[in-house]
Each structure stands twice: as structure tokens, then as C-alpha cells.
Design goal:
Elements: E1 2-3, E2 12-15, H1 17-30, H2 42-51, H3 57-62, E3 65-66, E4 71-72, H4 80-97, H5 99-113, H6 115-118, H7 130-155, H8 166-188, E5 197-203, E6 209-216, E7 221-225, E8 235-244, H9 253-259, E9 262-271
Length: about 270
């Protein structure tokens, strides 16, 4: 889960990974204009973008309590033995839908541990304890084998062989990383505390990238420069979650979370011009 920051004493907005990836998919649906190529193949990319963290679904349903906060574990604060299971479960799910979805999903899992294929200076592997590193190495080796098998499967079919061309493959991978990190920008930090940020390696097309800068304006509005979405007048989106206060050790976290009503937060994305 994602536990959004909050002022001291206030409830935290708790977001499942399905709710996080739903926002990623809304970004993907609107992505593309005269400067930015849209996602393609569209149906397959929209599927994997909306399900790239589906391996967290069972774990989120358990709503494990973090004894340090009294709230659900927040992302990387989750016990690593459980995180590493999600890293292979997501490609499992996506591979069952289509080998291309499985390939992109597997690349996402592998990239999270390896600096997003050199596009980020955050290398999760470097921060792992020895026992966790062994778990991660075994999972990552399995993902490399998975990717090789999926590439072979795609290349053997004339209708999908072109999808494994490196330039397009990494264009699509980088699109997913942009949607993922942009959603995390909103999911992780509450309104009023979000600051200017930049997203590197956002693909204009298969051979060109750019850096997109986001700036808070007012009343839930944010400008993006350059603007990567289809409506030049701006887009308004919502994402879901539940507000929750810390739960005592003897209470049932899952029960408390399910009792809280689902609500939404709204954002408006505008061109900087």
C-alpha cells in the first residue's frame, strides 16, 4: 500500500496499489500530442500499465500493520520477503494476459531493483541486507529468464515480432516509468506539500526523450512543462483511497480499513504555456 503523508494528528490517505495503478492508466489514456507519441500498442500497454503492480493485490488485502506507525506498511517499509513476492507475481499475471504485457511488467520489476535501467540513481539492490539480496538475486535471475522466453515467443509470431525492437520496447518501458513516478508524486505526498519536481527520460518518440517539470499552482492544479497530454485545456483526474488513523495493536487493521469509506482526491494538470 501507499500511505500518504499527513500533518501531525491528521488521518492518512491510504491507497492500494490497484488504486495507484488506476491513476497510472488514466495518465496513459491521455498521454500524447503533437510532441509526445501516445502509448502503442494501445490496448496491451493500457492493460499492463493498469496492472503493473497487481502482484500487491493479495498483500494489500491482508492490510498488514506496521508496528512503527499503527498504519498499513508503506511501500518499501513492507517486510522484504513479501515485497519480493510481488515482483514476480505481477509479471506472472501480465504474462497470462499477453507475452508483451508480461515482458513490460518483468522489465518494470527488474528495473526497480537496478536503477530503472540506468535512468535513476536509486538502486534498490545496493541497499539490501545480505539475506534480502539473496532473495532479490534469485527473483531477478528468474525475471531475466522470463524476459528471454517472452521475447522468443513474441519474435516467433510475425504479428508481434516488431514489438521486441529495442527502441520501441524502451519507449514503452519509459512511458510506464513516467506514469508510475508521476502517480507516486501525487499518491505519496498530501496536497499543499507537493513541490516542484522533474521527471527525466520521458519519451517523445522511440529515439528522443525529454525532461518534464511539474509545478504546483493553486487549488489542486499543477503545470507540466513540456505538457505531455492530449487536451491543451488541461485534464482533471481523481484517485481513490481511504482516510485512516493509526490502529492499536489489538485492533484488526483490515477491518478498520474496510470500515473507512472510499473517497477521492482531485488533481488538475495544465500546460505551462
Amino acid at each position: 500500500m501507499i500511505v500518504q503523508s499527513a500533518v501531525e494528528g491528521a488521518e492518512h490517505f491510504v491507497i492500494t496499489m490497484d488504486q495507484h495503478t488506476a491513476l497510472c492508466a488514466r495518465f496513459a489514456e491521455h498521454f500524447g500530442n503533437e510532441c509526445f507519441e501516445p502509448v502503442e500498442p494501445r490496448a496491451l500497454m493500457l492493460h499492463v500499465i493498469e496492472h503493473h503492480d497487481v502482484g500487491w493485490r493479495e498483500l494489500d488485502a491482508q492490510a498488514l500493520r506496521d508496528p512503527a506507525t499503527g498504519l498499513p506498511y508503506n511501500l518499501v517499509k513492507t517486510p522484504f520477503s513479501r515485497i519480493v513476492e510481488t515482483s514476480s507475481a505481477s509479471p506472472d499475471f501480465n504474462s497470462a494476459h499477453h507475452p508483451y504485457c508480461g515482458l513490460i511488467s518483468s522489465m518494470h520489476s527488474w528495473g526497480l531493483y537496478n536503477g530503472r535501467y540506468g535512468m535513476s540513481d536509486k538502486v534498490l539492490l545496493d541497499s539490501l541486507a545480505d539475506d534480502n539480496r539473496a532473495l532479490a538475486d534469485a527473483m531477478l535471475e528468474g525475471e531475466i529468464e522470463r524476459q528471454q522466453g517472452l521475447r522468443t515467443q513474441l519474435e516467433s509470431d510475425p504479428e508481434t515480432a516488431s514489438l521486441t525492437e529495442e527502441d520501441q520496447l524502451f519507449q514503452n518501458y519509459k512511458q510506464l516509468q513516467f506514469f508510475d513516478t508521476l502517480a507516486l508524486y501525487f499518491n505519496c505526498v498530501q496536497e499543499g506539500k507537493r513541490e516542484q519536481a522533474s521527471f527525466s527520460h520521458v519519451p517523445l518518440n522511440a529515439s528522443e526523450d525529454t525532461e518534464v517539470t511539474i509545478r504546483p499552482v493553486e487549488n489542486g492544479a499543477y503545470t507540466l512543462d513540456p505538457y505531455p497530454f492530449d487536451d491543451s485545456e488541461g485534464i482533471e483526474l481523481t484517485f481513490s483511497g481511504r482516510y485512516l488513523s493509526p490502529v492499536s495493536q489489538g485492533d484488526d487493521m483490515r477491518e478498520e480499513l474496510e470500515r473507512a469509506p472510499v473517497t477521492t482526491q482531485t488533481i488538475r494538470l495544465l500546460t505551462a504555456a
